[in-house]
Amino acid sequence: MDAPRTSPPATHGPRSGRPELATLTEDDLVTGEAVALDLPPAGLALRMGSGAVDVVVTLVALVVGAFTVLLAVSGGSGAVQGIGSVGLLVLVFLVLPTTVETLSRGRSLGKLCFGLRTVREDAGPISFQHAIVRSMIGFVEIYAFTGVPAFFSALLSSKGKRLGDYAAGTYVVRERVPLRLVPPPLMPPPLAAWASGADITALPTPLALAVRQYLSRSAGLDAGRRSALAEDLAGRVLTHVAPAPPPGTPPEAFLAAVVAERRERDARRLGREAALRARLVSRP
């Protein structure tokens, strides 16, 4: 699982006096509770280690395949031997890595050993198209040029991309990262009665993410910025809530009450659905 992203909830825009909401970056995935998960790119050392394992496996497969082809076409003509050699190169350097990465959804033996996985730019699983492009470019940059282009490309890239990743629109992430979720905000007792009867619609994902980030990091903000952010977010959330909270309610308490009530309602709904499924399954 991936660690939650803890980017600052907001910053002051250079052309506006009011705070901006936190935004999703290209590395973020968002869960149903608006928790942004970051897929950390693999570092150069991990990429080199997994690549070395894959190169060794490929060379072993090449040697075994060459011995097999040599036995199979030893009595044939030069044309047959040439076809066998070309077929072996295509099989070892293109077909095998493409098949492995496609079926394993972005994992090779080296990546499996080092806890890595190849994903699309949007962090989704790769397809056959991505895998074959990576294999074709990989043959040139890793084997034809002894890995020099791949090394410098990964060294200069913020995501550790080699040339095949740029061509395929992919990058390699670390999978063995512990998940640390921020504790959810609690319901302020004075607002419990109001929240239980209020009509609270689902918040848009960017807004819900901004509220969650603000509530988890508000204690570390200075008083002025904390108040401005709370008022800005509360004004945006208020358009999704009816009736308004009691007069004099602090904006931060209002935000906590909305998030806590939405979480409680979702938990009750999921409980009812689970109970219904259990009754349907248990019927004779």
TrEMBL record:
Region (Disordered): 1-21
Segments traversing the membrane: 52-73, 79-100, 136-156
One protein family per Pfam: RDD
Topology within the bilayer: Multi-pass membrane protein
InterPro entries documented for this protein: RDD (IPR010432)
Keyword Membrane: yes
Key words, A-Z: Membrane, Transmembrane, Transmembrane helix
Membrane keyword on record: yes
Highest taxon above the source species: Bacteria
Domain RDD, residue spans: 42-169
Locations listed in the record: Membrane
Family annotation (PANTHER family): SLR0254 PROTEIN
Name listed for the protein in its UniProt record: RDD domain-containing protein
